[in-house]
Amino acid sequence: MTSNAPRVSFEFFPPKSDAMAARLWETVERLEPMAPAFVSVTYGAGGSTRERTHDTVKRIAQETRLKPAGHLTCVSATKGDVLAVAEQYWQAGVKHIVALRGDPPAGMGAKFDVYPGGFRDAVDLVEGLRAHRPELGKCFEISVSCYPELHPESKGWDAEIAYLKAKQDAGADRAITQFFFEPEVYLRFLEKARAGGVTMPIVPGIMLQPNFRGLQRISGLCGASIPDWLADLYDGLDTDEETRDLVTANVAADLCRKLQEEGVEDFHFYTLNRAGLALSTCRLLGLKPQPAKAA
Ligand code: FAD
After folding, report:
1. Angle at 215 between CA 76 and CA 106, to 5 degrees
2. What is the mean pLDDT of residues 3-10?
């Protein structure tokens, strides 16, 4: 690792088929030598996705040197259901939770209804995790989400920052941002958060999505903006996967470098289970594989 290489973490999603599982495990194996601070596995609204998340997180804990974090949401589950999963994670050696309200089962943009007996939102969930068996609850590392361009349900900047501060006060250790493409978006948000009393680390979430059409679709739903220069870079590349990958890694590395110049040292990569993109971005940032430490 070069002296100014950043600390990184990687996000995966749980596989939906045997073929996708094979790709995920290849990705995990190829990224493990980059010695990420942690890796996280997302959590879907449907029951089967949940099982796959749990299985994936536990397998990473048991079969690799990586420190996995399980995403947990408040969707369609009672408090008891959610805390039972947290308990299982703890028993399996998983010590880090990414605590989220989650999207409604009908999908992003639909109205979120609190499940009967469930957690109300991410603040309620963090409080619940910390209060659950206090000797266990206080030991979990807890990450939460934040939105440098506001969440679509936001009531404005003052409410947004106060809400992030409430997550910190409830016991969150770190916030991970929604993806963004302009360094100023993150830096302005950081300034607002610090002015509002948020002192926990705010780690930029960096998107590695080479499918520009897909990126446009998600961005429209989650409120992340796509600059014209980015659309221009992908213009005409719909059928040229190789070039799109090269563009994607370079755009991500360029964003990270600009943030590093502003003192940012940690980056969380949305890998979409693609090892090559995450590896090339890390390489462009000067990260090299680390030798395995003797047990
Ligand atoms: P919250 O932070 O609880 O609330 C979302 C927004 O609503 C807030 O930002 C704020 O604008 C507003 N709000 C809510 N309550 C208040 C209040 N009391 N006062 C003021 N404003 C309020 N989704 C999944 O389904 N599975 C995943 O694994 C997953 N992983 C994610 C990881 C990261 C890093 C991020 C950024 C998002 C992830 N999401 C995931 C998406 C997330 O579930 C959605 O954005 C969802 O709509 C909100 O969840 P949240 O935890 O951010 O909610």
Report:
1. 20
2. 88
